[in-house]
Amino acid sequence: MITCFIRYEIDPYKKNAFIEYARNWGQAIPRCGADLVGYFAPHEGSVSTAYGIYHLPDLASYEAYRAKLAADPLGQENYQFAQREKFILREERQFLKIASTPHAGPQTELIKP
């Protein structure tokens, strides 16, 4: 299992647009095959940092998921919405594998230095 962490830098004056974007992904992402943990908008502290987090079995599944998302009508609409409204200033995507217990059972491959 891999987890995709997306860190967004958003325009703090367009936080509501990001929230709409996040709610749209809340429908489209699970429909296209990823296990969505959620999207997180600023609340306290930074007014411009937001996150999206979801799980997939592996990178091959990620590629299939991205193709489905690109073809999904709500996915297409949401991409266009973000481009039109320009509330996302920067986006960083990282793929991580859980390394802690109890979540990572005894079968988890350990990361070697």
From TrEMBL:
<dbReference type="Pfam" id="PF07978">
    <property type="entry name" value="NIPSNAP"/>
</dbReference>
<dbReference type="InterPro" id="IPR011008">
    <property type="entry name" value="Dimeric_a/b-barrel"/>
</dbReference>
<dbReference type="InterPro" id="IPR012577">
    <property type="entry name" value="NIPSNAP"/>
</dbReference>
<feature type="domain" description="NIPSNAP">
    <location>
        <begin position="5"/>
        <end position="100"/>
    </location>
</feature>
<protein>
    <submittedName>
        <fullName>NIPSNAP family protein</fullName>
    </submittedName>
</protein>
